[in-house]
Amino acid sequence: MKKIVTILMILGMILSVVACAPAAAPAAEATEAPVAEATEAPVVEATEAPVALNIALITDVGNIDDKSFNEFTWMGCKNWAEENGAVANYYRPSEDSDEARIETIKTAIEKGANVIVCPGYLFGATYQQLPQQYPEVMFLGIDLGLGDVPEPQANTALITYQEEQSGFLAGYAAVMDGYTKLAFLGGIDVPAVVRYGFGFVQGADVAAAELGNTADVSVKYWYSGAFWPTDEIKTKTAGWYTEGTEIIFAAGGGILYSAIASADEANGKLIGVDVDQSSVSERIITSAKKELENSVKLALSDLQANGGMWSAAYAGVENKLGATQDCVGLPTDAAAWRFSTFTVDQYNTLLEKVKSGEYAIASAIDVQPMVSIAVDYQN
Q: Measured between alpha carbons, how far is residue 69 from residues 83, 176, 195, 339, 376 in Å?
């Protein structure tokens, strides 16, 4: 009997060990899987969280309805902010002075702005000193280059444009549309204006060569020395129209209005600059423009993607944007397209050739372009 009891006790112990064995394996699985999920997922989410950008546009001497740099730069800030859940406001300095611009930027920062966007060369002196005082704030200069800000800080991004490409497109299109007597009216001969003019001459030359009429195409060329309307500009452009000029490319801010007055009297045509200026006058058949809105969006997207800091592509760097980045060109919407025979399809083909480098457009400003058409430099 004792043997039977002993045997039964041994069998019970064996069964209890066998019964407990399967429970050990699930215990090991339960301790491994949750740990891996808990430690990995939150880290990824934390690093990908969008940065809250608070953008402040500081205008130059105008306001955001100036149909020029202020307005189109503001559109870039405002539209990007709406598309990305950010905040955007604009501020206008009390006067045209470095002191007023600096105080306005400081006010914007005090109100929470962590991104400052300023359009135009007037902010050159401001960007030389203020970014050093606010290293945690990111500064974006539109149409500001190393010539304006020689030693930009790492929290400063500068954007300029390949105006020669935009001028080239305008000159090429004008000649292809049938114009043979052209003129370039520049403001002050700063690098951007010179590039516009030299690009315009090159575009007219290439189109004339393709049409086989380089002997018939000519360009009158003059810098007015001003960015505002003057009687001298009015007299000069009126004389050009009287001498047979058909179309004038006016590159220099307010000088356009003197040219418009002459064009109205002579039934002449014009080419606008920097932005789509077709709404300014029916005389403007196209505009050699900079895509300010698009370039602002490209920069702000870089800023957000890099955690609220400029990436190496922007930090302390001047980016010269052109056709490849879709940042220069001619307006193609129906209201602005006033060519008679040159079509949007032809323009798109031309633009692709500029993007690919098929047309080699010189950007030098210290030497006049070598061309076959006649160019009358009048300065």
A: 21, 29, 18, 25, 30
Instruction: List the structure tokens of 121.
Output: 């060369």
Number of domains in the chain: 2
The arrangement of strands across the sheet holding 156-161 comes to 87-91, 54-58, 115-119, 138-142, 156-161, 318-321
Residue 41 resides in a domain: no
Contact 277, 300 (CB under 8 A): no
pLDDT digits 0-9 by tens, 155-177: 999 999 999 999 999 999 999 99
The 8-class DSSP code of residue 323 comes to: G
**Domain containing 179: what range?**
164-290+329-377
Q: How do residues 225-267 score in pLDDT, each as one tens digit?
A: 999 999 999 999 999 999 999 999 999 989 999 999 999 999 9
CA-based nearest residue to 108, from 160, 56, 61 = 56
240 and 303 inside one domain: no
Q: For residue 92, what is the domain's CATH number?
A: 3.40.50.2300
**Cβ partners under 8 Å of residue 185, min gap 6:** 222, 224, 233, 236, 237, 248, 249, 250, 251, 252, 255, 259
- Which neighbouring-strand residues pair with 290? 328
DSSP at 149: S
98 and 194 inside one domain: no
The CA distances from residue 255 to 64, 202, 229, 260, 271, in Å, are 20, 23, 5, 9, 12
Q: Look at residue 39 and tell me if it is in a domain.
A: no
Same domain, 108 and 246: no
Backbone angles phi, psi at 349, to 5 degrees: -65, -45
